[in-house]
């Protein structure tokens, strides 16, 4: 039986890269603004919960959609965001836990990743005063690890700023990236997000030292979900 070139190309796209891992640093959290004189008993803050790249890169290269599950007191408490930025804005007065579910593209993973974030509206320090100009920002950093990616996936993400990929052996050739996937990288500029000025800089040396010590355990835990 003779295989066509199309069959061979499709086979190469799904072929797994053994002993290879790619990782995607992510940050999830919330920014909350006090409404000041406009605040009422049930509307004291305007807030945004989100999932973003560690330095605000576009995560849509691996993430298909993000589902946020709010408190049951909200209308339509389960909200799906189908395109970046993966964020949701609301207003209210109370703090509660938000379930965040990341759904990936089919060539990335068929298993969703479940995260949990406690919405914060007030400063951690009781003596901290509320300000309409400076929001409360609470964020967590993690790395999602995908083991044995397909050659097609590796080729698609190898030059994307949101994804950390290892260097392959010299002479190893990957399948070409479809034109439509290359075009998608240019559609979203994460720097256009007005919340960027409030995001935590997780590239600072002290943060990296803390994360490096915990990374091995975090990777083991996340691999359970992927």
Automatic annotation (TrEMBL):
The family database entries (PROSITE patterns) matched by this protein are listed as: YEATS
Subcellular localization, per the record?
Nucleus
Stretches assigned to the YEATS domain: 16-160
| Keywords, comma-separated and alphabetical | Nucleus, Transcription, Transcription regulation
One GO CC term on file: nucleus
Q: What superkingdom heads the lineage?
A: Eukaryota
InterPro entries, alphabetized: YEAST_sf (IPR038704), YEATS (IPR005033), YEATS_dom (IPR055129)
Q: Which residues are listed as membrane-spanning?
A: none
Database matches in Pfam families: YEATS
Q: Name one GO biological process term.
A: regulation of DNA-templated transcription
What is the official name of this protein in its record?
YEATS domain-containing protein
Is Magnesium tagged as a keyword?
no
């Amino acid at each position: 039986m003779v295989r066509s070139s199309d069959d061979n190309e499709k086979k190469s796209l799904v072929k797994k890269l053994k002993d290879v891992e790619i990782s995607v640093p992510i940050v999830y959290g919330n920014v909350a603004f006090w409404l000041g004189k406009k605040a009422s008993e049930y509307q004291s803050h305007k807030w945004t919960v989100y999932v973003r790249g560690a330095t605000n890169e576009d995560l849509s290269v691996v993430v298909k959609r993000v589902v946020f599950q709010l408190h049951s007191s909200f209308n339509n408490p389960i909200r799906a965001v189908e395109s970046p930025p993966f964020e949701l804005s609301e207003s209210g007065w109370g703090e509660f836990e938000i379930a965040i579910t990341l759904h990936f593209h089919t060539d990335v993973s068929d298993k969703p990743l479940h995260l949990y974030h406690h919405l914060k509206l007030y400063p951690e320090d009781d003596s901290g005063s509320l300000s309409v100009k400076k929001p409360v920002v609470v964020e967590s950093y993690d790395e999602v690890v995908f083991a044995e990616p397909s050659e097609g996936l590796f080729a698609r993400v190898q030059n994307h700023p949101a994804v950390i990929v290892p260097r392959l052996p010299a002479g190893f050739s990957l399948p070409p990236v479809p034109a439509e996937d290359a075009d998608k990288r240019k559609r979203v500029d994460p720097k256009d997000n007005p919340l960027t000025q409030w995001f935590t800089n997780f590239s600072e040396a002290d943060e990296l030292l803390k994360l490096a010590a915990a990374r091995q355990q975090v990777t083991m835990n996340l691999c359970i979900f992927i």
